[in-house]
Amino acid sequence: MKSIRSILDFMESKFKEGGKLSKISPLFEAIDSFLYSPGQVTSGSVHVRDAMDLKRVMVIVVVALLPCFYMALWNTGFQANSAISVTGVHIGGWRETVLSFFGYTADPNSLVDNLLMGGVWFIPVYLVTNIVGGFWETLFAIIRKHEINEGFLVTGSLFPLICPPTIPLWQVALGISFGVVIGKEIFGGTGKNFMNPALAGRAFLFFAYPAQISGDKVWTAVDGYSSATPLARIAETGITGLSQSTSWMAAFLGKIPGSMGETSTVACLAGALILLLTGVASWRIMVSCAVGAALISTLFTLVGSLTNQMFALPFHWHFVLGGFAFGLVFMTTDPVTGSMTEEGQWIYGALIGFMCILIRVINPAFPEGMMLAILFGNICAPFIDHIVLKRHTKRRLLRHAQG
C-alpha cells in the first residue's frame, strides 16, 4: 500500500491546476479518496467534527447490502435452476459456456450451482450499471470541476438489485443513465437531488419498457418460462391461491420470484441492523413506514371486497412480498431524498407505508407499490420539513413573546 501511496503522490502534481492532466483531476481525486482517507482536515472551530464522513456512510450502506447481494446471486440461480429441472430447457449462449467451464449441473439444491447461475445474470447487470453510471458521474465532475462523489457507490449497488434478471443490458445502461443524469446530476449532484436516482431509473424503465420490467416472464432466467410474482398471483387467485403456492416463510427468506436483490426480507433486516447500529439510517422512518402500512392494510382487510382479492391480504404478507422490506430499509432512509427533521421523519415514513398499500390494493393491475410510494414521499419530503420547521418557529416565537 505504501508503494501505491508513493505513486499517487508522485502523479498528483500532474492533476493539479496547471498540470497536463488537470482537466481530469476529479478522476484522480476519486481514486485517491477511494483508496485512502483525504489528507485535508478542517482547522477552524466553525466545523462540526465527526468520524462519520460521506465515504464511510456510503461504505456502510454497501456493507449492509451484502446480504441482498448474496440473495441476488442465490435466488436468481435457484429460480432458474428450479425451472430448468422442471422444463429441461437450458439458457444457452455465452452464459451456458461459462457455466459449463465451472462444472455447472443445474441442480437447484446445490449452493454452488445456484450462485454460478445467479452470477452470470447479476454480475453483467452490476458491471454495466457501474461502468455507465460511473461514466456520467465522472463526466459531470469534470465539466463542473468538482470531485467525484462517493454517492454513486450506493446508487450503483441499489439499481441492479431492483432489476429483474432478464433485463437487457442496454436497458440497464439507459435506466442508470436516466437515474444519474435526470434524477440527480441536473439538480447539482449528490446532496441536491430530490428523488432517489436508482428508483428514478427503475421507474423510467417501468413506464418506457414495461414488457422487459414487468409481467410473468421476466423474473426467471429461462427463456419462455412464466412465473408470476406472489403479488401478481394474489390478484388472480386470492390469498388462498397464494398460500397454496408459496409459504410465508419462503417469502420471508426470499425464495420467490422477483427483482434480483429485493425478495429476501431476512436479508433486508440484516442490512437494517447494520444501518441502525451505525446510526446511518433513521429508525423513525422505518418504524413509521411499517406502522403506516400495517394500519392501512388492516383497515382494508376489515372493510373487505367481493371483487378485489388484494383487500384480504394481511399486513404480515405485505411486509414480505415485493420490494416492501428492501424499500423500507434502503430507499426510504436515504438521507438526501428523505425528511430531515425528527417529526418530519415520522410523517414521511407513515406516508410511504400508507401509499404503498394504497397503490397495491386499490390498483390490482399494478401490484407493486413501493417504488411509486417512495418517489411520492421524496417529492413531499421538503414540504413536510418546511411545515415542521414553520410550526417550530411559530412555537418558539410565541414562547418568546410570552416571556
Give structural notes.
The protein is an all-alpha fold and 403 residues long. The protein folds into two domains: 54-227, no CATH class; 269-403, no CATH class. The protein has helices at residues 2-15, 25-35, 54-64, 66-87, 93-101, 111-144, 152-161, 169-182, 197-208, 210-213, 230-245, 248-253, 265-277, 283-303, 315-318, 324-331, 342-362, 370-401. The longest helix has 34 residues, at 111-144. The model has no long low-confidence stretch (mean pLDDT 86).
Separation of termini? 62 Å
Runs in which pLDDT lies below 50 for 5 or more consecutive residues are: none
Helix-strand string: HHHHHHHHHHHHHHHHHH
Helix content: 55-70%
Record field, number of beta strands: 0
What is the radius of gyration? 23 Å
Quaternary state of this entry equals: single chain
Give me the number of helical elements.
18
Mean pLDDT rating: 86
- How many structural domains can be distinguished in the coordinates? 2
**Biggest sheet details:** none
Describe, in short, the structure shown.
With 403 residues, the protein is mainly alpha-helical. It contains 18 helices and no strands.
Comma- or semicolon-separated keywords:
2 domains, 403 residues, mainly alpha, 18 helices, single chain, 65% helix
Please write out the topology.
Elements: H1 2-15, H2 25-35, H3 54-64, H4 66-87, H5 93-101, H6 111-144, H7 152-161, H8 169-182, H9 197-208, H10 210-213, H11 230-245, H12 248-253, H13 265-277, H14 283-303, H15 315-318, H16 324-331, H17 342-362, H18 370-401
